[in-house]
Amino acid sequence: MVSLESFPEITGSVLTDPDVMAAYAVDHCSPVHGAVPLAVVLAETTEDVAAAAGWCYANDVVIVPRGAGSGLAGGASAIEGCVIISLAKMNAVKEINAQDQYAIAEAGVINADLDRAVREHGLMYPPDPSSFEICSIGGNVATNAGGLRCVMYGVTREYVLGLTVVLPDGRIIRTGRRTVKGVTGYDLTQLLVGSEGTLGIVTEVTVKLRPAPVIPPTTVAASFPDVVSAAAAVAAVVGTGVVPALMELMDRRTLECVEALRPFGLEDETRAMLIGQGSTPEDAAVLAREFEAAGAHYTVVSDDPAEAAELLAVRRAAFHAYEHAGNIFSEDVGVPRSQLPEMFARIEAISAKYGVDIPTCAHAGDGNLHPTLIYPRGEREVPQAIWDAADEVFQAALALGGTLTGEHGVGVLKARWVGEELSDDVLELHRGIKAVWDPKNLLNPGRGF
């Protein structure tokens, strides 16, 4: 094993105690168990990251970049003998430019903290993953995270203007710009967004901001007799041309899991719940009309922000409720929105076929579903029935013109299925790009593809 005696001095700290490092060896992906790292670097500056990466490159040591550890695909799990470089302590919002509507944030800044900071200037940072209170901007960039508001505002990729990046050999580069437009050279910024830490380590992000809405959106919540009807309501809304501020769907099993964790008064007749928001009362009226036409038992329309927050808290609690129910294999397939009813129907059939518990919630306005396969917490290894059911869910999504992952990333969990979506020629191009950026294959190897 390589000795750490020659490791450079850095501003941050270097952890080597196995018990302490264990907390950094895994993310939120239950099926992926992290190995034992050589060390964990708690970087505080871009120069810390560069020094650590340069040492790893010189000594042929694998690097695993890590943000807040909230990932769901095992992309930040430790590889045997690696150095984990944690960006969690790099949590400063370095600049907010209200006039030009951009901000510069270190990679460890929590998503919700950035949004709160820019709200003081009448602006907003729109991407808001369900884990927005714990996930970091750097991690959001790594997986091109979306969130509840992405149906109207778009995902992380659409807000990243520029990046500060440490290459595997320790060089520091800056990509992108602060201007609205710019086409000088290849767009390396967008290449890095969604690259899952396999090309470079993002240490700072320049993001585009939007004016915060002056009037709160109007919320529409509806109860449905089945999840397929609720999904059909989503497709109907899309057909009207109205763009909701958000549209989230939860099936009955998801609602039961949330009720067990934090009771909210689940009705027996509610087999699915759809929560939408319209930017105007007129848009909200269209949502309510389409919900009712699709067979909603009842529909509630409210312009009360407190009531909206309570409803959205139910949706945001879904993942933690799944964790409370057992070990989870979390998927995030995407399908064309017109195919949502069929995809939900197939998930229900797969659940019944394998006897696997698969609660499903969705950023329905984007066609991004989160079928989550639950298995007993006492089982360290993923049961074969879970793998088989997951395979059928992925195949169903692809057959409907969809994708393996909308925002969680491939990581380790879905690597075996990448060839089902990407052709051999496309994968060859991926490998070529990886070889240019990381010729020694030291940066998060085996993740993403």
UniProtKB/TrEMBL annotation:
<dbReference type="InterPro" id="IPR004113">
    <property type="entry name" value="FAD-bd_oxidored_4_C"/>
</dbReference>
<dbReference type="Pfam" id="PF02913">
    <property type="entry name" value="FAD-oxidase_C"/>
</dbReference>
<dbReference type="GO" id="GO:0016491">
    <property type="term" value="F:oxidoreductase activity"/>
</dbReference>
<dbReference type="Pfam" id="PF01565">
    <property type="entry name" value="FAD_binding_4"/>
</dbReference>
<dbReference type="InterPro" id="IPR006094">
    <property type="entry name" value="Oxid_FAD_bind_N"/>
</dbReference>
<dbReference type="InterPro" id="IPR016169">
    <property type="entry name" value="FAD-bd_PCMH_sub2"/>
</dbReference>
<keyword id="KW-0274">FAD</keyword>
<dbReference type="InterPro" id="IPR016171">
    <property type="entry name" value="Vanillyl_alc_oxidase_C-sub2"/>
</dbReference>
<dbReference type="InterPro" id="IPR016166">
    <property type="entry name" value="FAD-bd_PCMH"/>
</dbReference>
<dbReference type="InterPro" id="IPR051914">
    <property type="entry name" value="FAD-linked_OxidoTrans_Type4"/>
</dbReference>
<dbReference type="InterPro" id="IPR016164">
    <property type="entry name" value="FAD-linked_Oxase-like_C"/>
</dbReference>
<protein>
    <submittedName>
        <fullName>FAD-binding protein</fullName>
    </submittedName>
</protein>
<keyword id="KW-0285">Flavoprotein</keyword>
<dbReference type="GO" id="GO:0071949">
    <property type="term" value="F:FAD binding"/>
</dbReference>
<keyword id="KW-0560">Oxidoreductase</keyword>
<dbReference type="InterPro" id="IPR036318">
    <property type="entry name" value="FAD-bd_PCMH-like_sf"/>
</dbReference>
<feature type="domain" description="FAD-binding PCMH-type">
    <location>
        <begin position="33"/>
        <end position="212"/>
    </location>
</feature>
